[in-house]
Every structure is written in C-alpha cells, then in structure tokens.
Amino acid sequence: IIHLPAIAKAVSDVTGAGDTVIATVAAAIAAKKSHHQAIMLANIAASIVVSQLGTATVSQPELEAEYQRQQGQKLTEHSLGGILSNEQLLLAVEQSKKNGEKIVLTNGCFDILHAGHVHYLAQAKAQGDRLIVAINRDKSVTKLKGVGRPINNEARRLAVLAGLSSVDWVTCFDGDTPEALISMLKPDLLVKGGDYDKKSVVGWQQVEAYGGEVRVMGLIDNCSTTAIVDKITQQS
Fold first, then answer.
1. For the domain bounded by 86-235, which CATH number is listed?
2. Where are the domains of the chain?
3. Is residue 146 very low, low, confident or very high in pLDDT (cuts 50, 70, 90)?
4. If DSSP codes are grouped into helix, strand and coil, which group holds residue 190?
C-alpha cells in the first residue's frame, strides 16, 4: 500500500480530479514509471486541476513545472540534516542520478552507534557518491532484537546517523526488510556489513535484476551493539 498525503492548495473546483488521477497514473505506468512515482505525479496533477474552476486539464509542461517546484521545496523542508521521508528521498535520488552520481544504500538497526558502525559507513560511502542509511523502525527492532530494544528510538537513531560526515541521507523503512524501499529507490550499490554471503543479503536479487551491484564489507571484530548492551547489563 502506497500512501501519500494530499498536496495542500486552495481548492476551487474538484470536478474531474478523479479522472485526472486515473489518467495520470495510467500514463505514468505506460511510461515505465514505478507505482510510487505514478501516484506522486497523479497527486501533483490533481492539485493543479482542483485549483481551477470547471473541468480543467493538465499539460505536460504544467506537470513538469509543478514537479520541479515541489522537488526543490521538499528537499529544503526536512527537519534535521539529511533526514528524509521515503518520498523526499526518492526526489533526492532521482536528482542525484540525473547528475551522474552513484547511489549507495545500506540498512540496519544502528541502535547504539559505535566505532564498528562508523568504520563500516565510511567504507560504504567510499564506494560511491551518495550514501543512504535506511533504518528499521522501533517496532521492527523489537521484533528482531527482543524486548528492551531498541535502546534509542528511531528519532534519536536518525539524528545520530545524520550527524556523520560519511552519511548523506537517512530514512526509516516500514516492515522488517528494506525490500520495498530498494524497489522504489533502485540504488546502484547495496552494501551490507558482516559475515554475509552475497546471496543472503536481503534485496540482492532485486538489485541485480535491474543491473545494480551488491557488496559485503567487513566489520571490526568484537564491536557490536549487542556486546555493548550485554556488558552494561553485566556491570549493573
């Protein structure tokens, strides 16, 4: 399920808005856009027609101009550093790809940031031009790591990661895996740290299917969030 909030505008007449949405989605999918991109464009098209009296139409130049305007606006409205919603991140990635930049994505819980994380993320950034870190939401961390986790909630985890010089953008993903986000963003390179076989990395098939690459990076030995939590628990 893809949910995008309506674009706030002065509404003059809603006649034909539904037809505009359906037509725009159909045209976008026919043009090989993703479902997320199609709905985003339809949302923009609807915001244009409802601001006009009577049954209005939207031209391609109008749609492109409004898309570019909102793209610039959304990229400057995020609240802290490189913390972006999935929708804002898609816009940022699209612009970076137009500029010829290589997009790297990694994911994880990143509950208590430690030296191993910092080293690994610096390695990941060195593989491309832009590094995206996608983190599990709190509910997912609890499901994966157990009761008492996360130690730091998602807002704090996002803030800490956004402060690293190696990280360009951070976001949360819904569910227990980042597969939907990977399908939406289509990063050039998917990176994972640890003793993984490439084919055990979640999303590897999606990435290689569209021509991307998957790499596994080494981590610093004896450096993990779980080990830190266990040590604190023992000492207390």
1. 3.40.50.620
2. 17-75, 86-235
3. very high
4. strand
